[in-house]
Amino acid sequence: MAQTYWWSSESFWKKMAVWITAGAAVALIFLTFDTVATITAGSKRVPPYSVINHRIDYVFDEKRNHQVPVIGPEEPLFGKVLSEEEAKDLVTKGKLNVQAKNCMNCHTLLGNGAYYAPDLTKSWLDPAWGSKEVREQSMVEFLMDPSDKLHNAVGRRMPRLGITEEEAKATVAFLKWMSAIDTNGFPANFTTIDQSDAPAAAEPQAAQ
């Protein structure tokens, strides 16, 4: 009768399957909690919602070898300083509007979505809005009716989606908040809107 080694026995591999499955489950639970903590607003890489009360800019970090967000002085959205709870409500409403209008069917947000239309991850900082003084209103007007706007006149055009002014302002709040998320340099090599008349940007945020 042929000798059966312990490492080739059926019982050994059954036990191994149980232990490997259990270990993978524990690792998955740990990674889930770690991920939730990392992507929650107010963490090191994801700012609190009230960041929309401040100027958001980017500087090149030599150590990390890519651009990183910096939070500047107070520049409240639409001229109104919001509490954390008020900012959360506004940003959340904007996020829900982005989902309801299925923006990711054409655009990319934080690496997710399609590549038919421009990436929206840092759209708040897009120089196409002209200047930081008119940016907010330009974005609202564009969202409400992009059909007659200059940078929608050629190439792939955004349709009119029936967005109200209230929804547009909430969407702008979401886009501003999203632009402050430290995405490890994604998207790479983007150019920010001119803020040369503003005070110098603060030091880069610490991140692990």
Average residue pLDDT: 88
The CATH topology assignment of the largest domain is Cytochrome Bc1 Complex, Chain D, domain 2
Share in β-strands? 5-15%
Strand order of the largest sheet: 1-2
The CATH superfamily of the largest domain is known as Cytochrome c-like domain
- What is the share of helical residues? 25-40%
What is the makeup of the main sheet? 2 strands, antiparallel
Number of helices: 4
CATH architecture of the largest domain: Orthogonal Bundle
Number of strands: 4
Give a short synopsis of this structure.
This protein is of the alpha+beta class and 208 residues long.
Protein model, in words:
The protein is an alpha+beta fold. It folds into two domains: 27 residues; 131 residues, Orthogonal Bundle (Cytochrome Bc1 Complex, Chain D, domain 2). The strands form two sheets. The protein has a two-stranded antiparallel ribbon. A two-stranded antiparallel sheet has the order 3-4. Helix 3 crosses helix 4. The radius of gyration is 23 Å and the shape is elongated. The model has no long low-confidence stretch (mean pLDDT 88).
List the topology elements:
Elements: H1 10-39, E1 54-61, E2 66-74, H2 84-100, E3 108-109, E4 112-113, H3 135-144, H4 165-179
Antiparallel strand pairs: 1-2, 3-4
Helix pairs in contact: 2-4, 3-4
Question: How would you describe this structure in keywords?
Answer:
208 residues, alpha+beta, Cytochrome Bc1 Complex, Chain D, domain 2, two-stranded antiparallel ribbon, elongated
